[in-house]
Amino acid sequence: MLPQTVVRARIGLMMLLYNWFKIRRPLTSQVLVTKYCNYNCRQCFVYPMEQREKIAKTKEPTLKMLEYLFDESVKMGAQVIIPFGGEPLIRPDIGDVIKAIKVRNRYCLMYTNGSLVKDKIKDILLTDQLVVSIDGPPEVNDSIRGKGSYDKAIEALEIALDHGLVCRLHTCLIDETMDSLPHMIELSKKYDVMINYGYCDATGYRRAAKEDIELDRGKVIKFLKELLEAKKAGEGKIASPAKAIAECIRVMEEWPVEGTLLTKEEEKQFRHLHIPKCALPFSNIYIDSDGCAYPCLPLWGKDGKPGPNVYELGLKKCWDMYKDLDCFQCSSVFTIEKGFFYSFNLGMLLEYISGFEFLRHAQRPKKKCAS
Question: How far is CA 188 from the centre of its chain?
Answer without folding.
Answer: 19
